[in-house]
Amino acid sequence: MSAASPQVRAKRGRSTTTARSSSRSRLRPAANEKAKVRRIRSRPCEIQGFRDLRPVLLESLHSKDAFFIPLESATGLDREQIFYIGFAIMILYLILGNFAGILCNMIGFAYPAYQSVLAIHSTGKDDDTQWLVYWTTFAFFSVPDQFAWQIYFYFPLYWAMKAVFLLYLALPQTYGAHNLYAKYVDPTFEAVSKSSLMRNANVADDDE
To answer: Name one GO cellular component term (predicted).
Structure first.
């Protein structure tokens, strides 16, 4: 059998190189795929610390005249006092009430559900991220609820602290869900993704 000509050997070499390149391209993400990854950035929020709580609270209360003016007239109390009394009653019920779990989950469901419907109809992406992360967190913290009464027996503040945490995640004054995702989840996801890409790249190099 005659030896292959130089042209045939060169063609075979190019075919082998092309096959290896194709294999590596399947294992390594293309540059345009990397460009599609959108990093989530933290959003500025009104409440940066405990000192911001009261000014933000007062601003919010004074924007709800239709709700508070009748209550102020009926009780003789100003709206800040009405809020503190209502909040204290809610916390006490979350500690002592028989239906504390239902109240806690309603606190974490009603307002976020309404805002999620609005986010579906909006054109921006930031609110989608906020509520997608919120519902993921809400679902995660619903798992311990299966053992809630055992937890409550040893830790009576369980429902109260969960309700406060859900409010922190949901309220636009804190953007808790969005910012927790941007600060912790997104960097972790990126690190895991890079580690996976490095392993795939090493596999491709070994195949060579």
So the answer is: membrane
* Same-domain status, 81 and 113: no
pLDDT tens digits along 70-129: 999 999 999 999 999 999 999 999 999 999 999 999 999 999 999 999 988 888 777 787
Q: Which of 83, 84, 109, 120 is nearest to 167 (CA)?
A: 109
- Do 118 and 170 fall into the same domain? yes
Residue with tokens 């006092």: 81
Q: What is the pTM of this model?
A: 0.69
SS3 95: helix
Residues 6 or more apart in contact with residue 38 via CB below 8 angstroms: 125
Phi, psi of 38, rounded to the nearest 5 degrees: -105, 115
In Å, how far are 35, 182, 190 from 38, measured between CA atoms?
Answer: 8, 11, 11
What is residue 174's three-state secondary structure?
coil
Kindly state whether residues 123 and 87 are assigned to the same domain.
no
Residue indicated by tokens 């204290």: 88
Q: Which residues of 69-85 are buried (b: 16+ CB within 10 A; e: fewer)?
A: eebeeeeeeebeebbee
Judge whether 176 and 141 are in contact, CB under 8 Å. no
Q: Give me the domain span that covers residue 83.
A: 50-96
Please identify which residue in the block is written with the tokens 């995660």. Answer: 140
Q: Which of 180, 198, 197, 201 is nearest to 37 (CA)?
A: 197
